[in-house]
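Hi R.,

Here's the chain you asked about this morning:
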Amino acid sequence: MNNPPPQTTVISTRSTVKKLRESPSTFSKIPFQSRKIQKLASHAAVDDPTESPQPSVIKIPKSLSTKPEIDTALNHLRLSDPLLAALISTHPPPKLSPCNSPFLSLSKSIIFQQLATKAANAIYTRFVSLCGNESDVVPATVLSLTPQKLREIGVSARKASYLHDLSDKFSTGFLSDSSVNTMDDETMFRMLTSVKGIGPWSVHMFMIFSLHRPDVLPVGDLGVRKGVQCLYGLKELPKPLQMEQICEKWRPFRSVGSWYMWRLLEAKSKTNGKAEGFKLL
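And here is the predicted structure, written out as tokens:
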């Protein structure tokens, strides 16, 4: 990921919050499933920066895999949220890694759960080697690995059961790489959380960083919540429902808005000379 900007990011953001609280705005709810979305029609300042301004219609890209798609997202966020616009101006745009197969990405996600990056990378490397190479990490191969073999390379018994459950659901056709790539966000969330060991946070990270879905808001992620608290000068960490309400204005590019919340917290932690308790991606 790109290096964060100097400490002026947080200071200028707080100053902008104060200014923006002096003029009026409106709030608009937008349906989740709509393939067209509302966009801010003017640059007018808002009274409460946690509320959504009045929008106009734009087209939603299916993923954020190209520079034009990311540019579209940044333009929308600049117009719809002046506070986020100030933050965007101090950071380079997001760069997302090329997509792997969904099965490989989900397997890696299970292995990396609750482990330090160095240890997780070592176990994952051994796991791939046991399969052959990354192209050989397929359901049939993983099902052929006994729990004992997986434990020998550092995979816990519980995670071995998760990997086998994931592989079984792909082998039976309940899930497939093609279906995961094409299903809508809500269906994907429901289907993937039915896999043992894959919870809401893992699904959100998978959707953002593996599939590059544009409109994912990980309401349970501590880093995103702390970023929203800092950006809007909130006294307390926002709860999931508050996150949905506050970040409504970012639709249909809440994934990109979330990415900037991680960058904001990263900048703040470096300014304070200490690490914050959140995962940087």
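One quick note: The chain has 14 helices and two strands.

Cheers,
M.
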